Task: inverse folding
């Protein structure tokens, strides 16, 4: 099997380290040590840690199970639930020790790094649009309330999900996810 490029090694290491430790706790040295490449190699591929963080955010976005929202021949409400269940499994599988890169970056770096704020806003916007499209389908088939717009419900679900992740990082017992599913699917969307 061919060896990954140095750039790819850096991106993979940054993905892991940013996800595990957050933006502020990860210096270039930690990332290059984790990638097992010389620190100077970093600057051959990235202008800054911020530039690398933007690449990591794109990569992270590809892992958010948005495909589950478009599964053919599955009811839209079931697709919506499957999406969040897959996200929950990702966090449970690592012992609740990693949150959402988008959420982490928004609390750590968005206030003082405009490029990260813009990228987080775009990522949340893309995610909310995918949720809203599925909610719209569920409203059309009568399985979700039409009392609110799909966009409002999508933003609420996204924000509630991010809060549930924060709760799980503290309790590590599934209670915040259980509350999310109970309220989101048995109250808010009904």
Result:
């Amino acid at each position: 099997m061919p060896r990954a490029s140095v750039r790819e090694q850096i991106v993979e290491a940054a993905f892991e380290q940013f996800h595990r430790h957050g933006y502020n706790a990860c210096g270039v040295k930690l990332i290059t040590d984790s990638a097992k490449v010389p620190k100077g190699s970093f600057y051959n591929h990235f202008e800054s840690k911020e530039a690398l963080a933007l690449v990591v955010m794109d990569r992270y976005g590809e892992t958010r199970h948005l495909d589950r929202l478009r599964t053919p021949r599955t009811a839209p409400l079931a697709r919506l639930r499957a999406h969040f269940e897959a996200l929950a499994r990702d966090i449970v599988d690592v012992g609740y020790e990693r949150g959402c890169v988008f959420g982490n970056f928004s609390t750590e770096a968005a206030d003082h790094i405009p490029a990260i704020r813009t990228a987080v806003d775009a990522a949340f916007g893309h995610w909310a649009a995918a949720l809203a499209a599925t909610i719209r389908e569920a409203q059309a088939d009568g399985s979700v309330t039409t009392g609110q717009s799909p966009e409002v419900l999508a933003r609420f679900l996204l924000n509630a999900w991010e809060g549930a992740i924060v709760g799980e990082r503290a309790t590590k017992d599934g209670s915040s996810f259980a509350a999310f599913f109970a309220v989101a699917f048995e109250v808010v969307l009904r």
